[in-house]
Amino acid sequence: QVQLVESGGGLVQAGGSLRLSCAASGGAVSANVMGWYRQAPGKQRELVAQIARGDTRNYADFVKGRFIISRDNAKNMIGLQMDSLKPEDTAVYYCSLTTFWGNNYWGQGTQVTVSS
Q1: At 88, is the secondary structure helix, strand, or coil?
Q2: 21, 79 Cβ separation under 8 angstroms
Q3: Cα–Cα dist 48/63, whole Å
Q4: Under a CB-based contact definition with an 8 Å cutoff, are residues 98 and 80 in contact?
Q5: 34: closest CA among 101, 116, 98, 111?
Q6: Got the DSSP string for 35-80?
Q7: How many CB atoms are closer than 10 A to CB 47?
Q8: What is residue 54's predicted lDDT score, i.e. its pLDDT?
Q9: What residues contact 21, with CB distance under 8 A and at least 6 apart?
Q10: Interval 6-65: pLDDT, tens
Q11: What is the pLDDT of residues 30-39, one digit of tens each?
Q12: Any idea of the CA torsion for 51, 68, 20, 48, to the nearest 10 degrees?
């Protein structure tokens, strides 16, 4: 069974940085599409960044130039380096794994709060 555990969230001031991590078990980050999503209260869950097979990276327009998604195959983890954080980045951030067949798995989420 796939299990994803996020960590690294917290409270930061606008303009600051955080690094999120996602530890995966039951599935290899190297063999599946991995991503970071976020959900703010009252809003839909939205894609933040995605890393596919072959290390192809896709970013939501609102984080381009600020966030970087990474993958560590040896540790079976993915990361999200978040710089120049804005209050509107405040959300619960979720790690996702999508299989070849389109099955999607989610972590429990980690809270990121950016103060003005």
Answers
A1: helix
A2: yes
A3: 7
A4: no
A5: 98
A6: EEEEE-TTS--EEEEEE-TTS-EEE-GGGTTTEEEEEETTTTEEEE
A7: 14
A8: 85
A9: 6, 7, 8, 77, 78, 79, 80
A10: 999 999 999 999 999 999 999 999 999 999 999 999 999 999 999 998 889 999 999 999
A11: 999 999 999 9
A12: -60
What does the alpha-carbon distance between residue 55 and residue 87 come to, in Å, rounded to a whole number?
Answer: 29
Residue 79 near residue 72 (C-beta atoms within 8 A): yes
Can you tell me which residue has the tokens 């619960």?
Answer: 92
The count of C-alpha atoms lying within 13 angstroms of the C-alpha of 73, restricted to the half-sphere facing its C-beta, is 9
**Cβ neighbours of residue 45 closer than 8 Å, sequence gap 6 or more:** 37, 38, 39, 94
